[in-house]
Specification:
By secondary structure, this protein is mainly alpha-helical. The protein has 15 helices and no strands. This is Ankyrin repeat-containing domain protein.
Length: about 250
Amino acid sequence: MSGLGVAAAAGSDDMVKMILSHSHLTRTAIADVARGGHMSTLKILLQDGRLDVNQLDKIGWTALHYAVYYGMLDMLQLLLSVERVYPDVRSDDQLGANHMPFSEAARRGDIKMMRILLRKGKVNVHYVTWSSWTPLYHAADAGSVKGVCYLLAQGVQVDQHDERFPTPFTLAAQGGHLDILRVLHSMGKVDMESLGEHERTPLSYTAEGGNPEAVAFLLAQGTKPIPKIPKAELPYHMPLSSATVLW
Protein backbone atom coordinates (compact mmCIF):
# COMPACT_ATOMS: atom_id res chain seq x y z
CA MET A 1 0.00 0.00 0.00
CA SER A 2 1.29 3.46 -0.86
CA GLY A 3 1.83 6.20 1.70
CA LEU A 4 -1.32 7.86 0.42
CA GLY A 5 -3.23 4.62 0.91
CA VAL A 6 -1.94 4.23 4.46
CA ALA A 7 -2.89 7.80 5.33
CA ALA A 8 -6.33 7.36 3.75
CA ALA A 9 -6.97 4.12 5.63
CA ALA A 10 -5.95 5.85 8.86
CA GLY A 11 -8.40 8.66 8.16
CA SER A 12 -5.64 11.26 8.45
CA ASP A 13 -6.71 14.08 6.13
CA ASP A 14 -3.79 16.27 7.23
CA MET A 15 -1.33 13.54 6.31
CA VAL A 16 -3.08 13.03 2.97
CA LYS A 17 -2.72 16.74 2.18
CA MET A 18 0.92 16.70 3.19
CA ILE A 19 1.62 13.72 0.94
CA LEU A 20 -0.15 15.44 -1.94
CA SER A 21 2.03 18.50 -1.55
CA HIS A 22 5.25 16.50 -1.64
CA SER A 23 4.55 13.48 -3.82
CA HIS A 24 3.87 12.52 -7.40
CA LEU A 25 0.46 10.85 -7.51
CA THR A 26 -0.12 7.55 -9.24
CA ARG A 27 -2.69 7.76 -12.04
CA THR A 28 -4.97 5.26 -10.32
CA ALA A 29 -5.11 7.02 -6.94
CA ILE A 30 -8.78 8.04 -7.28
CA ALA A 31 -9.93 4.52 -8.14
CA ASP A 32 -7.71 3.06 -5.41
CA VAL A 33 -9.15 5.39 -2.78
CA ALA A 34 -12.72 4.70 -3.96
CA ARG A 35 -12.10 0.96 -3.72
CA GLY A 36 -11.10 1.45 -0.10
CA GLY A 37 -14.20 3.52 0.63
CA HIS A 38 -12.20 6.54 1.84
CA MET A 39 -14.64 9.41 1.25
CA SER A 40 -12.68 12.21 2.89
CA THR A 41 -9.53 11.35 0.93
CA LEU A 42 -11.54 11.13 -2.27
CA LYS A 43 -12.87 14.65 -1.70
CA ILE A 44 -9.31 15.93 -1.25
CA LEU A 45 -8.14 14.23 -4.46
CA LEU A 46 -11.07 15.59 -6.46
CA GLN A 47 -10.46 19.10 -5.14
CA ASP A 48 -6.76 18.75 -6.00
CA GLY A 49 -7.85 18.24 -9.61
CA ARG A 50 -4.64 16.72 -10.95
CA LEU A 51 -6.00 13.24 -11.60
CA ASP A 52 -8.47 11.87 -14.13
CA VAL A 53 -11.60 10.76 -12.29
CA ASN A 54 -12.31 8.31 -15.14
CA GLN A 55 -8.92 6.57 -14.91
CA LEU A 56 -9.05 2.77 -14.90
CA ASP A 57 -7.10 0.99 -12.17
CA LYS A 58 -4.93 -2.09 -12.61
CA ILE A 59 -7.92 -4.43 -12.85
CA GLY A 60 -9.79 -2.17 -15.25
CA TRP A 61 -12.33 -0.46 -13.00
CA THR A 62 -12.95 3.21 -12.24
CA ALA A 63 -13.97 4.94 -9.03
CA LEU A 64 -17.59 4.95 -10.25
CA HIS A 65 -17.56 1.17 -10.68
CA TYR A 66 -16.36 0.70 -7.11
CA ALA A 67 -18.89 3.16 -5.69
CA VAL A 68 -21.72 1.17 -7.29
CA TYR A 69 -20.25 -2.28 -6.59
CA TYR A 70 -19.92 -1.57 -2.87
CA GLY A 71 -23.24 0.28 -2.68
CA MET A 72 -21.64 3.57 -1.60
CA LEU A 73 -24.39 6.02 -2.54
CA ASP A 74 -22.70 9.10 -1.07
CA MET A 75 -19.54 8.33 -3.02
CA LEU A 76 -21.52 7.85 -6.23
CA GLN A 77 -23.18 11.23 -5.80
CA LEU A 78 -19.85 12.89 -5.04
CA LEU A 79 -18.23 11.45 -8.16
CA LEU A 80 -21.18 12.41 -10.36
CA SER A 81 -20.93 15.98 -9.10
CA VAL A 82 -17.56 16.25 -10.86
CA GLU A 83 -18.12 17.93 -14.22
CA ARG A 84 -15.54 15.84 -16.05
CA VAL A 85 -16.83 12.43 -14.91
CA TYR A 86 -18.25 10.00 -17.50
CA PRO A 87 -21.31 8.18 -16.06
CA ASP A 88 -21.18 5.66 -18.91
CA VAL A 89 -17.46 4.88 -18.52
CA ARG A 90 -16.67 1.29 -19.56
CA SER A 91 -14.64 -1.16 -17.55
CA ASP A 92 -11.72 -3.03 -19.07
CA ASP A 93 -11.35 -5.88 -16.61
CA GLN A 94 -9.74 -9.26 -17.04
CA LEU A 95 -13.08 -10.85 -17.93
CA GLY A 96 -13.53 -8.38 -20.76
CA ALA A 97 -16.91 -7.38 -19.37
CA ASN A 98 -16.69 -3.86 -20.78
CA HIS A 99 -19.67 -2.87 -18.66
CA MET A 100 -20.90 0.42 -17.21
CA PRO A 101 -21.49 1.33 -13.58
CA PHE A 102 -25.19 1.29 -14.54
CA SER A 103 -24.95 -2.42 -15.40
CA GLU A 104 -23.38 -3.07 -12.01
CA ALA A 105 -26.25 -1.21 -10.36
CA ALA A 106 -28.67 -3.38 -12.36
CA ARG A 107 -26.94 -6.52 -11.08
CA ARG A 108 -27.35 -5.24 -7.52
CA GLY A 109 -30.95 -4.22 -8.11
CA ASP A 110 -30.11 -0.82 -6.64
CA ILE A 111 -32.92 1.28 -8.08
CA LYS A 112 -31.78 4.46 -6.36
CA MET A 113 -28.35 4.22 -7.97
CA MET A 114 -29.85 3.35 -11.35
CA ARG A 115 -32.09 6.42 -11.20
CA ILE A 116 -29.23 8.69 -10.17
CA LEU A 117 -27.05 7.45 -13.04
CA LEU A 118 -29.89 7.88 -15.55
CA ARG A 119 -30.58 11.41 -14.33
CA LYS A 120 -27.05 12.32 -15.31
CA GLY A 121 -28.32 11.97 -18.88
CA LYS A 122 -25.47 10.07 -20.51
CA VAL A 123 -26.35 6.47 -19.68
CA ASN A 124 -27.81 4.19 -22.33
CA VAL A 125 -30.09 1.51 -20.84
CA HIS A 126 -29.79 -0.40 -24.13
CA TYR A 127 -25.99 -0.39 -24.16
CA VAL A 128 -24.55 -3.61 -25.59
CA THR A 129 -21.06 -4.77 -24.59
CA TRP A 130 -18.68 -6.48 -27.00
CA SER A 131 -20.06 -9.77 -25.69
CA SER A 132 -23.64 -8.68 -26.55
CA TRP A 133 -24.73 -8.20 -22.94
CA THR A 134 -27.10 -5.39 -22.00
CA PRO A 135 -27.91 -4.17 -18.47
CA LEU A 136 -30.94 -6.52 -18.61
CA TYR A 137 -28.58 -9.46 -19.16
CA HIS A 138 -26.62 -8.47 -16.06
CA ALA A 139 -29.76 -8.13 -13.93
CA ALA A 140 -31.22 -11.45 -15.13
CA ASP A 141 -27.92 -13.26 -14.65
CA ALA A 142 -27.57 -11.96 -11.09
CA GLY A 143 -31.17 -12.81 -10.17
CA SER A 144 -32.01 -9.17 -9.54
CA VAL A 145 -35.80 -8.93 -9.75
CA LYS A 146 -35.77 -5.23 -8.89
CA GLY A 147 -33.18 -4.53 -11.57
CA VAL A 148 -35.11 -6.48 -14.20
CA CYS A 149 -38.42 -4.79 -13.38
CA TYR A 150 -36.89 -1.32 -13.44
CA LEU A 151 -35.22 -1.93 -16.80
CA LEU A 152 -38.41 -3.31 -18.34
CA ALA A 153 -40.20 -0.18 -17.16
CA GLN A 154 -37.60 1.83 -19.11
CA GLY A 155 -38.60 0.01 -22.30
CA VAL A 156 -35.58 -2.25 -22.81
CA GLN A 157 -35.80 -5.08 -25.32
CA VAL A 158 -36.98 -8.20 -23.50
CA ASP A 159 -35.76 -10.92 -25.83
CA GLN A 160 -32.60 -9.49 -27.33
CA HIS A 161 -30.59 -12.36 -28.74
CA ASP A 162 -27.18 -12.93 -30.24
CA GLU A 163 -26.43 -16.29 -31.82
CA ARG A 164 -23.29 -16.56 -29.69
CA PHE A 165 -25.05 -15.98 -26.37
CA PRO A 166 -28.34 -16.86 -24.63
CA THR A 167 -31.22 -14.46 -24.03
CA PRO A 168 -31.90 -12.85 -20.63
CA PHE A 169 -34.69 -15.44 -20.21
CA THR A 170 -32.21 -18.26 -20.74
CA LEU A 171 -29.78 -16.69 -18.27
CA ALA A 172 -32.54 -16.52 -15.67
CA ALA A 173 -33.32 -20.18 -16.32
CA GLN A 174 -29.66 -21.08 -16.01
CA GLY A 175 -29.53 -19.45 -12.59
CA GLY A 176 -32.85 -20.92 -11.50
CA HIS A 177 -34.33 -17.45 -10.96
CA LEU A 178 -38.02 -18.35 -11.03
CA ASP A 179 -39.36 -14.87 -10.24
CA ILE A 180 -37.40 -13.38 -13.13
CA LEU A 181 -38.69 -16.10 -15.46
CA ARG A 182 -42.22 -15.12 -14.45
CA VAL A 183 -41.61 -11.40 -14.96
CA LEU A 184 -39.96 -11.81 -18.37
CA HIS A 185 -42.62 -14.27 -19.53
CA SER A 186 -45.37 -11.86 -18.47
CA MET A 187 -44.07 -9.41 -21.07
CA GLY A 188 -45.26 -11.83 -23.76
CA LYS A 189 -42.21 -11.45 -25.96
CA VAL A 190 -39.83 -14.21 -24.87
CA ASP A 191 -38.75 -17.25 -26.85
CA MET A 192 -38.90 -20.13 -24.38
CA GLU A 193 -37.11 -22.40 -26.84
CA SER A 194 -34.10 -20.15 -27.45
CA LEU A 195 -30.84 -22.08 -27.53
CA GLY A 196 -27.85 -21.36 -25.33
CA GLU A 197 -24.51 -23.08 -24.98
CA HIS A 198 -24.39 -26.63 -26.42
CA GLU A 199 -27.88 -25.97 -27.85
CA ARG A 200 -29.51 -26.13 -24.45
CA THR A 201 -32.93 -24.57 -23.93
CA PRO A 202 -34.14 -22.76 -20.79
CA LEU A 203 -35.82 -26.03 -19.78
CA SER A 204 -32.51 -27.87 -20.10
CA TYR A 205 -30.84 -25.39 -17.79
CA THR A 206 -33.52 -25.55 -15.10
CA ALA A 207 -33.44 -29.35 -15.17
CA GLU A 208 -29.67 -29.48 -14.94
CA GLY A 209 -29.71 -27.04 -12.06
CA GLY A 210 -32.22 -29.13 -10.13
CA ASN A 211 -34.94 -26.46 -10.04
CA PRO A 212 -38.25 -28.38 -10.10
CA GLU A 213 -40.38 -25.26 -9.59
CA ALA A 214 -38.77 -23.55 -12.57
CA VAL A 215 -39.15 -26.75 -14.61
CA ALA A 216 -42.84 -26.95 -13.69
CA PHE A 217 -43.34 -23.28 -14.59
CA LEU A 218 -41.77 -23.66 -18.03
CA LEU A 219 -43.73 -26.81 -18.80
CA ALA A 220 -46.95 -25.10 -17.67
CA GLN A 221 -46.27 -22.30 -20.16
CA GLY A 222 -46.09 -24.78 -23.03
CA THR A 223 -42.36 -25.40 -23.29
CA LYS A 224 -41.62 -28.55 -25.26
CA PRO A 225 -40.21 -31.37 -23.10
CA ILE A 226 -36.67 -32.45 -23.86
CA PRO A 227 -36.64 -35.55 -26.09
CA LYS A 228 -35.55 -38.73 -24.32
CA ILE A 229 -31.85 -39.38 -24.82
CA PRO A 230 -30.25 -42.81 -24.39
CA LYS A 231 -28.01 -42.85 -21.30
CA ALA A 232 -24.94 -43.53 -23.42
CA GLU A 233 -25.61 -40.39 -25.47
CA LEU A 234 -26.30 -37.97 -22.61
CA PRO A 235 -24.12 -34.85 -22.85
CA TYR A 236 -21.43 -34.70 -20.17
CA HIS A 237 -23.11 -31.63 -18.68
CA MET A 238 -26.50 -33.29 -18.08
CA PRO A 239 -26.72 -35.85 -15.26
CA LEU A 240 -29.20 -38.67 -15.79
CA SER A 241 -31.18 -37.65 -12.70
CA SER A 242 -31.84 -34.22 -14.22
CA ALA A 243 -32.70 -35.44 -17.68
CA THR A 244 -35.22 -38.07 -16.63
CA VAL A 245 -37.50 -35.52 -14.97
CA LEU A 246 -38.38 -34.18 -18.39
CA TRP A 247 -39.29 -37.39 -20.17
